[in-house]
Write a structure and sequence with these properties.
The protein has about 500 residues and is an alpha+beta fold. Helix content is about 40%, strand content about 20%. The strands form four sheets. Strands 3, 4, 5, 6, 7 and 8 form a six-stranded antiparallel beta sheet that branches. A six-stranded mixed beta sheet has the order 10-11-12-15-16-19, sandwiched between helices. Strands 1, 13, 14, 17 and 18 form a five-stranded antiparallel beta sheet that branches.
């Protein structure tokens, strides 16, 4: 408790400094260039008291103190140092550290009207046992009406709060299903694992594993456990090469990333960290026992949204020559944060160190350049605007939902074949153009298929038809170019090092 109290004081006092500079004539002005901790604390308290007494509306004193903490952290000028609310901190504990929570086992999303719909229930969970279906609406939770929007002030996170709870506690949801009257389902919450890994075989002998985030502090759970199971399944299926997809992976826990990289690398240091305090200086060594044999070619897919922990894995694989990177340059987040809880407030995320790839490189703000640069087709600026308008107005979502409803009425069952809907997209695209919304058929098809799959409960792991980066990764593996690419880059690296040495010698002459 004492530590948290001290941390609170250190954080909040910094907010007083700009106020003192502005009001240099009052009793808290800087004296002889000196300012005391007591002055700062008193100034902050005085500001809040004056606002409480004189502001033309009622003041929330607690909110002002929280704002002071936020301002103090913002003054550090570090985008990764900030205050988390109690709810956000609890979500981090559940989703990031524990990799599990008490719940019913459904994914939910809002439709265009503000109602909450179920995507696909997770197999083996209470929702699955109760035969909840993709497309079901949750209209009430424990009798509380569910509707999102400004009128109610309710958000998706509020609904999550209602659905989650302690394991073995009961929750009753009211479900609205097509052609049926609303009905109640009483469920007992269970331990629900947070998924972070999906996998499949994308071609003969080519395994594919996608990691969406790095979670779990228990090595028997979380990303590492999921990854190990996926890798073992691919081995049993006769895997001859592996594609590791880290695109859109914005990071997670350093330890989780370290253990994934350690599955491929048998020697050296995978990642190291260095902070202002020596207690944050760490080295994470590779172990000789690896899970993925060295003769298995590795291709790692990355993009501009691959950040932090995903860059640790990508950087280790690139620096050690264990595989090649395909895609676009990564985000460039080369710093490490630690969470410090604040009693009854939440927690702070504080940057404590920088991390370095095996060759000692910091990728902060520079990112990692892939061996093979493949950029997905980008629409012109005007089409980007049109796409955003179509999405914000839910025009395509309404079209897809209406088409599905019409098929259910016609066939008496939920459709599962997107190709039938796809045949109607050219005509729909023309209707959009007539209304002034000009978008490409490619974007329309990709987005329509995503909406279709969510609505009918289909989980598509890859989409080879539209994924040019994945297509290139498969081509490289089939052409046996992974090893040659690694050798080429090693040779280029040696040439650059030699040229650097020569230039240094010339500079000394």
């Amino acid at each position: 408790m004492k530590r948290y109290t001290l941390s609170f004081i250190v954080l909040v006092v910094a907010i007083g400094l700009p106020l003192l500079i502005i009001h240099s004539s009052d009793k808290y002005a800087i004296r002889d260039g000196q300012i005391t901790l007591e002055d700062l604390n008193n100034a902050l308290e005085d500001v809040i008291t004056k606002a409480e007494e004189n502001y033309y509306k009622q003041i929330d004193r607690d909110a002002m103190y929280r704002g002071a903490i936020k301002g103090a952290l913002a003054a550090i000028d570090d985008p990764y140092t900030y205050l988390l609310s109690e709810r956000d901190h609890q979500r981090s504990v559940e989703n990031l550290y524990n990799a599990n929570f008490g719940g019913i086992g459904v994914g939910i999303y809002p439709d265009h009207r503000g109602f909450i719909k179920i995507s696909k229930p997770i197999p083996g969970t209470p929702a699955d046992s109760a035969h909840l279906q993709a497309g079901d609406y949750i209209t009430k939770v424990n009798g509380k009406q569910i509707f999102l929007g400004e009128r109610t002030g309710m958000t998706v996170e509020d609904v999550v709060d209602l659905l989650r709870g302690a394991v073995d506690t009961d929750v009753t949801i009211t479900v609205q299903r097509k052609y049926l009257d609303p009905f109640d389902v009483k469920l007992k919450r269970a331990k629900i694992s947070v998924p972070s890994v999906t996998s499949t075989m994308v071609d003969d002998g080519i395994g594919y594993i996608r990691i969406s985030k790095f979670i779990g502090t228990n090595r028997r759970g979380g990303t590492e456990s999921e990854f190990n199971k996926a890798l073992a399944a691919h081995k049993d299926a006769g895997m001859q090469a592996l594609i590791l997809d880290l695109r859109n992976n914005q990071g997670g826990l350093l330890d989780a990333a370290y253990h994934i990289a350690d599955a491929f690398i048998s020697q050296g240091v995978i990642v190291s960290t260095k902070g202002r305090k020596t207690e944050f200086d760490e080295q994470y060594p590779a172990h000789s026992k690896i899970l993925c044999a060295p003769d298995i070619p590795i291709v790692v897919l990355v993009d501009e949204y691959s950040a932090s922990a995903s860059e640790i894995v990508a950087g280790a694989i690139k620096d050690t020559g264990r595989g090649i990177l395909v895609g676009t340059k990564t985000y460039g987040k080369g710093v490490v944060q630690k969470r410090y809880p604040l009693t009854n407030i939440g927690a702070i995320s504080l940057t404590i160190s920088s991390y370095y790839t095996p060759n000692g490189t910091s990728i902060d703000k520079s990112g990692i350049t892939p061996h093979v640069n493949i950029t997905e087709p980008q629409p012109e600026r005007i089409e980007q605007i049109m796409q955003r308008i179509v999405a914000e107005k839910n025009i395509l979502e309404k079209f897809v939902i209406n088409w599905i409803d019409a098929e259910v009425n016609r066939m008496g069952d939920t459709p599962t074949d997107f190709s039938k809907l796809e045949t109607e997209l050219p005509q729909f695209r023309q209707q959009l153009a007539n209304d002034g919304y000009r978008v490409s058929l490619r974007w329309l098809t990709i987005r329509a298929e995503q909406l279709f799959n969510i609505s009918v409960g289909i989980e598509r792991i890859v989409n080879l038809r539209h994924d040019t980066q994945l297509q290139e990764a498969i081509r490289i593996i089939k052409a046996d170019e992974v090893g040659n690419t690694i050798q080429l880059y090693r040779a280029l690296d040696q040439i650059l090092k030699f040229m650097g040495q020569e230039l240094t010698t010339l500079a000394q002459l």
